[in-house]
């Protein structure tokens, strides 16, 4: 049985240039999204904090591409976030080039594209969603920080998400690092996609 259970995790490497990317041939899942959306937190939650990806309330914490080997059969990849306004323009451009190069050269099985459920899409979010559609890369949109909305706010957000033409045709999952059920559902959705 191939299914991933996210039982074991091993930190492999933290890459800052192409030469540093791992050469092993494992299927790969990349976690993408703007700074502070909750990428590293989601990884920690999926892995039940066995390996701790650095999280921070200060955006821009993860600057390298971090590889974790999951259950000895798949790479889970934590990417630097985009769109952090206080980062210098040169660094932002370098990140863009670096992430772009990574995304275009690796054999990605799946992208988890994270969006903060409270926020409307930024121009970079839209650009990215259009890019994955064009590249035909399998993508799950993960709406993070669900616990920060009350029932009414949640219903309103779901209404606008369901009427957004870019979002309403993409597979999505709701997520909160405070909710074990979300974790199980996301693991199920990942397994359904990567082994077919
Ligand atoms: P960069 O590495 O800067 O790109 O950020 P990131 O996307 O990795 O975000 P990170 O995981 O560091 O989380 C940013 C902040 O959001 C931290 O303070 C987390 O504790 C918080 N956070 C992440 N997920 C959740 C969630 O589901 N619920 C709540 N309440 N807070 C969350
Ligand atoms: Mg991070």
Structure description:
With 196 residues, the protein is α/β, with parallel strands linked by helices. The protein has 5 helices and 7 strands. Strands 1-3-4-2-5-6-7 form a 7-stranded mixed β-sheet, with helices on both faces. The radius of gyration is 16 Å and the shape is globular. The protein starts with 8 loop residues before the first strand and ends with a helix. Residues 33, 35-41, 55-57, 59-62, 80-81, 144-145, 147-148, 176-178 line the site of guanosine-5'-triphosphate (GTP).
Write the layout of secondary structure elements.
Layout (H helix, E strand, L loop, with lengths): L8 E7 L12 E6 L5 H8 L18 E6 L3 E5 L10 H17 L2 E9 L6 H13 L3 E6 L6 H12 L8 E4 L5 H15 L2
Parallel strand pairs: 2-4, 2-5, 5-6, 6-7
Antiparallel strand pairs: 1-3, 3-4
The protein binds guanosine-5'-triphosphate and magnesium ion.
The site of magnesium ion has 5 residues, from helix 1.
List how many beta strands DSSP finds: 7
Terminal CA distance reads 13 Å
List of distinct ligands in this structure: guanosine-5'-triphosphate, magnesium ion
Shape: globular
Q: Compute the number of helices.
A: 5
- Main beta sheet: strand number and arrangement? 7 strands, mixed
Q: What's the pLDDT, averaged over the residues?
A: 87
Tell me the Rg in angstroms.
16 Å
Structural class: alpha/beta
Strand order of the largest sheet: 1-3-4-2-5-6-7
Low-confidence stretches: none
Q: Summarize the amount of helix as a percent range.
A: 25-40%
Order of helices and strands: EEHEEHEHEHEH
| Portion in beta strands | 15-25%
